[in-house]
Fold this protein.
Amino acid sequence: MHHQELGALQVGESALFPRHIHQYWGDARPPEGVLNLIQTWRSKNPEFKHTLWSDSSARRFIGEQFGPQARACFDACLYPAMRADVFRVAVLFVCGGFYIDADEGCEESIAPLADLAGEVILYYVTRRTGGQAKDRIRNGFMAAQPGARFLGRLLAEIFSALIRRESKNLWLVTGPGKLNQVYGRVDEAEKRTITVLTHRQMLRFAKPNYQLPYKREASHWSVAQKRGVETINPAELPKIGGFDWARLVFLGHPRCGSASLAAALRNAGLEVGHEKLGVDGIVSWWLTGRRLPKTGWPVLTHSARQGSGAWIAGKTFLYLRDPRDAIPSIVLENEAQGRENNSFRFRRHVLNENFGIDIGNFDPPVAAATSYALWNRLAEQSANCGNVLVERPDLGNALPGLDLKLPGRMNTSLEKFRMPAPAIDFGETAARVPSEVRPWLDRYVGIYDSLCSAGPDLGAENFDLAQQRSNDERALDQQEACLKSPAFESFKKETPMGPKGIAHKSLALQQARDVEETIENNELLARDIETQARVMEARVRLAEAKAKFRELGLGRATGIEDNDGGEE
């Protein structure tokens, strides 16, 4: 095994690790020796939030974030050490910050580590096994950005290893053995997002206490492991095939460019499948209706079949097509086979279940408009990275350096249905959708109007945009939307990016324009001031971090290229 020098530890220029320390102890109150160690983290890191989790709070967190199947995996772990292994990955993936074992004491503040570049911080130790020196990554001290790719993949593999009961050796199923296995399969590009500290570097900040009395008790995992006891309770395990990791997920509505978006992502060098999972992710309208209910993180089921597996999603986007183009095409999708096609029946069931609205009760244009608005609303609830507009795709903020252009040839209604999409009076159709649906339809119209009003230079050259309405028509439609929607005020509070309407009939059209322009100018000024403040704050923190690094004299970090995942 050889080591790759990553160079001097790099101070982060943008995203900083959340200043939150997570620790775990199974019982409500740890023994005195452990409490004393925990207190050192609080006293030496006063600017960090500190949370001590227990079995009950950790179990509740995993269930709320990843659903009952993941909670069942946690429940199946017979030893607190295994539950701690599962929880540390789950809480860092969702919340970010630092996870530190409760048997480690703080030597000095970890603030300098919070300013490092990358997504994950780990550390390794070197041990001699069978006369050979081997490097092993440990999991007693870890840090991560929320949604870190490596941790998402690791969490999915831990859940699956529990479900398959891969081994009685908890070190291999949930512990450092599994961590090393997953790290050994990470490609070089992703390894550059992971800082691996040496053992000596880690000991500057944290020092384990191996002499605590509880470690010699028969119930401790290391003692029980030597006896070869069961570590997993199969009666608690979920009856599913397992969990997979989906790095990039794009959710939306059918007839809204999913195939074209998947092709564009592949042309840009990403292995993203259309309605099937590729190495880098998936573009799917179907999965929009497959999110596990009441989960904080997007966890998507493969199908409705009993025992089907689930995907833990990473970066998740809503893909959107201009509703004035999409809805006529959706009419053809809905009305195929007299509404007895799988697409319409599936959406009808899911929307009725989630919103109590049956699109089967509406005429074709209203059914299509209602489906478009509510289905995209479901997708937006899962989208943790915003939206991508299929006519003018831009993922530069979420995926820097990605050159995304749609292919010239699109899947048209003529190609799929052998007929053109029907002509629909969009304004008349929008006026007839249910009142609780109208704000969401207005929202997606507003997104496209904002895009089009910014000019034609913003997007792909090879996609024919929908016919743009005049400024007068746009302002009148926004005014009408506000006057007709009783839910608009609550909608504005819930959705800051929602359409801007003028809520008073007596305003003349020119006045409406002036008011809207003033609002937009004020918002731009406020955002500019806020951005300047953040930049100044980041520069101050960066200077402090660099000064601290010079003071500490931290050396070089080492990455590990391969690992056999065996036990030490």
Notes: The longest helix spans residues 509-552. The chain has 21 helices and 16 strands. The CA atoms of residues 366 and 433 lie 6 Å apart.
